[in-house]
Design goal:
Blueprint (H helix, E strand, L loop, with lengths): L5 E5 L3 H13 L4 E4 L2 H6 L6 E7 L7 H10 L6 E5 L17 E4 L4 H12 L4
Parallel strand pairs: 1-2, 1-3, 3-4, 4-5
Length: 124
């Protein structure tokens, strides 16, 4: 892990942001949290983000719209979706820079951390 790179978490549910912040910090990661995709995009946070965890369904800009926007801007950040949706919408479509993984809530923390560690090591 780079000493300046961080994992960014975007979720409109504060309890999820707090829980993921604690989990990631307990594994030694720098963490930035955002209550919305627009807050993330308007910050300088994406410049130092090595891995992005985003909810799919959020007010304003959804996680899928965020992914499309990052792709349109040429910003390549490994993205992991976390979602409470009962059925994940189709994510593979032309011009879409898809996620590395999708984890339904509630997710297994060990599996999520293994995925993040693979991303941070450049294995994904």
């Amino acid at each position: 892990m780079s000493d300046t790179a961080s994992v960014s978490v975007i979720d409109d549910d504060e309890s999820v942001r707090v829980a993921l912040d604690g989990l990631l910090r307990s594994h030694g990661y720098r963490v930035k949290t955002y209550p919305s995709a627009l807050d993330f995009l308007s910050s300088a946070g994406f410049e130092k983000t090595a891995c992005l965890l985003s909810d799919i369904q959020m007010p304003g800009m959804t996680g899928i719209q965020l992914c499309d926007e990052l792709c349109a801007r040429g910003i390549e950040i490994p993205l992991i979706f976390i979602t409470g949706l009962p059925a994940v919408p189709p994510l593979a479509r032309p011009g879409f820079c898809g996620p590395v993984a999708v984890f339904p809530k509630p997710f297994d923390c060990g599996e999520l951390m293994a995925c993040i560690e693979s991303v941070m090591r450049g294995l994904v």
